[in-house]
């Protein structure tokens, strides 16, 4: 059961970061190289507590579908999405946003998953999947950081 953790400092307020992370549209932009598309449930805008989204994407050359549901949310600090159906045996993805000063946020991302296929799945984790998922999530989070900082900068410029 690998657990992938990352932490990023974002030069934007907590609410801006929180909304960027639950944006279906930004998710699709950030995962464009896998062709990830929302095809069911919430397919655009901000996903809310109790809502689900079905993603279609190509990973390892195979078209896959995965449905995740928002199972916990404490706005603007925290939300959790969990797999309802898909290639994993299960996953729980926690997103936490901690204010650091007035306009900085520490984003903590924890992806806890179990691969299917028992021992074979654990071997695949060690050989390729854990590294692949670590890169995939980091690229997505760096994209969200860039977008949140740009949005905040634009908001500040409008105030002047």
TrEMBL record:
Limits of the Coenzyme Q-binding protein COQ10 START domain: 53-133
Lineage: superkingdom: Bacteria
Coiled-coil ranges from the UniProt annotation: none
This protein's name: Coenzyme Q-binding protein COQ10 START domain-containing protein
Organism expressing this protein natively: Brevibacillus centrosporus
């Amino acid at each position: 059961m690998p657990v992938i953790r990352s932490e990023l400092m974002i030069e934007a307020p907590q609410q801006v970061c929180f909304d960027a992370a639950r944006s279906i549209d930004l998710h699709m932009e950030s995962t464009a190289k896998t062709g990830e598309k929302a095809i069911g449930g919430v397919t655009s805008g901000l996903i809310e507590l109790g809502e689900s989204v079905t993603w279609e994407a190509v990973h390892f050359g195979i078209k896959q579908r995965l449905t995740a549901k928002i199972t916990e949310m404490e706005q603007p600090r925290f939300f959790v999405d969990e797999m309802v159906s898909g290639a994993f045996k299960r996953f729980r993805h926690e997103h936490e946003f901690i204010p650091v000063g007035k306009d900085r946020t520490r984003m903590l991302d924890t992806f806890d998953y179990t691969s299917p296929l028992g021992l074979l799945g654990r071997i695949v984790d060690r050989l390729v999947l854990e590294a692949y998922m670590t890169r995939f999530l980091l690229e997505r989070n760096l994209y969200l950081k860039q977008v949140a900082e740009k949005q905040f900068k634009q908001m500040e410029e409008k105030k002047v």
